[in-house]
UniProtKB/TrEMBL annotation:
3-hydroxyisobutyrate dehydrogenase-like NAD-binding domain location: 169-267
Catalytic center residues: 175
Domain of life: Bacteria
Protein name: NAD(P)-dependent oxidoreductase
GO MF assignments: NAD binding; NADP binding; oxidoreductase activity, acting on the CH-OH group of donors, NAD or NADP as acceptor
Pfam families (alphabetical): NAD_binding_11 (PF14833), NAD_binding_2 (PF03446)
Amino acid sequence: MKSIKTVAFIGAGNMGAPMARCVRRGGFDLIICDRSAAVRESFAREGVATTSEVKDCAGADAIIVLLANDAQITDALLGDGGLVHAIPSGHQPIVCMMSTTLPATLRTLEAPLAVAGAHLLDAPVSGGVVGAQEGTLTIMVGGAVSDAELARPLMQAMGSRIFHCGALGSAQVAKIINNMVCVANIYLTAEAIELAQAHGVSLESFAPILDVSTGRNFLTANAALGRAQFRAWSPTEDAYPDIHRIVAKDLHLALALSEQAGIAPGLLKPVSSYVDNHGPNEATRWTSAGRTPQSG
């Protein structure tokens, strides 16, 4: 394959949909595969080819996987009607695992995909929904250098910072550890915003102070952007459970990495326990953090 022209997305949810639109704006032909009729209809109205069947993605030059968990990933790629059974003879697509998963999961996928002719990259992202919408994601890539370079123009359509981390699975390690720090920051920052506002100090007032002090993090570097991130994750309290499931899973993956390395988790364990047990009650706090004081 000389270059990537056709890109299929398996999964076009909160992150996948804006990423797919960035890919289309980048000049690639697009195929959207999603179980949601509403998602498919949204893209179909824009003139994009859509399907609910993974096998319809098998002829694409690059296939981006953005699914919620290992069960969905394994079923989509290896299950009955999965991708490996549909790749045309002689075709060698690049499968970009942009979901967050464990390196061990990638190893179970690598050989069956290779037998079918596909090359596997892991390419998880950071930057949240706002970064996905703006095409400014940080993308971590693991896998063969030649595959990573072939996929670079595609990655640049979605992200402004591309890092090749090493062998297959290395990008997932980087992403999981990033998320371990990120999730702790998100929950603590939401609490900090509530505490400050209870004392009459808005995020807009104290974010510039944190930005030049030791409390700086990605949510306080810019108050407007920080609130936009909270709004994107939890625009209403009813939407919060979806993001809660994702961040809880991310911490479980970090715990699994610790266990595999034989490292006893310290602060990670109580943070994960807090998110598991108290996280479901944080909807009001997250939703409030996304609103400026004027918006009520």
